[in-house]
Write a structure and sequence with these properties.
Helix content is 38%, strand content 17%. By secondary structure, it is of the alpha/beta class. Strand 6, helix 8 and strand 7 (183-185) form a beta-alpha-beta unit.
């Protein structure tokens, strides 16, 4: 069922001309996902707000950037954006195993040359983390490490590293090309087998992909000792579309169950016993594990802030789209 978007008609029903722009290999993968949805191989679940538990919301979009049928909403009680209608865990696992990498990064999976070219990109993330941490950790773990670009930045600094990812090709590259031995194919719980607890646990653009936030935070508590640091980086609900020339649709993905602002991330972490130390508008944040959860942390109310900014971005994007069309019509460069 199509619901009217609180932003504009662009997000209520896919426009045929926009759908046709998805071509080549990405179209084949997108159509494969649609086929699995139609056959029932991939099924959906409906959930409430992961931040405050409310089910009072406004619909942002009835589809993602590839026009796959999810329902993305904005909670009217706390202002968190999330997928209300999303793939259930079994279907999501299948999607990550078979379509995810080729849909979002065509030609990336298992390409050693591309991996090598992208290793240095992690340097900026490494410097951000070290700047917040203020010292070199003894033992660093990363969940969702892909091919080990970030972990490799810690090597050679008297720091032990370990990590996990579901991408077997990426793990193989990390072992064979980067020399990382304690890296495993699988979930975050693989790190519990190491027999040692890290000083620093990192999730770089991973948390937004996880359906069960509460369950994952409990695993984080098992992995880290009291006083251990947790670094989380997620696409900021407002900063990320701003990078894409205010194209909100570009940021909406089947793979993203949650769209955080910094206050929402801080609140969810606090209720699981992670005290916020520092962060930024890009929603990169450092936390420390405390013995107990902070149930006194108030639920943020970001609805008006997020809604108004999304509306502003949508207007700017629509205006720019009109300008591009006029330039094309009149041959203006």
């Amino acid at each position: 069922m199509q619901y009217k978007s609180i932003l504009s008609s662009e997000y209520t029903k896919p426009k045929a001309r926009r759908v046709k722009r998805i071509k080549g290999g990405r179209k084949a993968i997108r159509d494969q996902v649609l086929s699995k949805i139609a056959s029932g191989e991939y099924s959906f679940e409906q959930v409430s707000c992961p931040c405050c538990g409310s089910d009072v919301h406004g619909v942002v979009s009835n589809f993602d950037r590839d026009f796959l049928p999810v329902q993305i909403v904005l909670c009217r009680d706390c202002g968190m954006m999330y997928q209300r209608r999303r793939l259930d865990q079994k279907s999501l696992s299948g999607f990550y195993s078979h379509e995810y990498r080729d849909l979002y990064n065509p030609g990336f999976r298992g390409n050693s040359e591309v991996y090598r070219q992208n290793i240095e990109i992690a340097r900026a993330d490494y410097e951000t983390i070290m700047g917040m941490l203020g010292g070199t950790p003894r033992f660093v773990c990363e969940v969702g490490m892909h091919f080990g670009a970030l972990l490799s930045q810690f090597v050679g600094k008297e720091c032990r590293v370990a990590g996990t990812d579901y991408d077997a090709a990426g793990i193989r590259f990390a072992r064979e090309e980067l020399g990382l031995s304690d890296v495993f194919v699988g979930p975050s719980t693989e790190l519990l087998k190491l027999g040692d607890k890290p000083d620093l646990l990192m999730y770089m653009h991973v948390l937004e992909h996880i359906n069960d936030l509460d369950g994952e935070f409990e695993i984080m508590r098992e992995i880290l000792p009291d006083g251990g640091h947790l670094f989380l980086s997620v696409p900021g609900v407002l900063s990320w579309p701003a990078r894409q020339e205010n194209d909100i649709l570009h940021t909406l993905q089947l793979a993203h169950s949650h769209y955080f602002s910094l206050p929402h991330l801080v609140h969810v972490a606090a209720r699981h016993g992670f005290r916020f130390l520092q962060g930024d508008s890009e929603v990169r944040a450092l936390f420390v594990k405390t013995p107990e959860a902070d149930i006194s942390d108030p639920v943020p109310n970001e609805y008006e802030i997020v809604y108004k900014e999304l509306k502003r971005m949508d207007r700017l994007w629509a205006r720019e789209k009109t300008f591009r069309k006029l330039k094309q019509i009149f041959g203006i460069k």
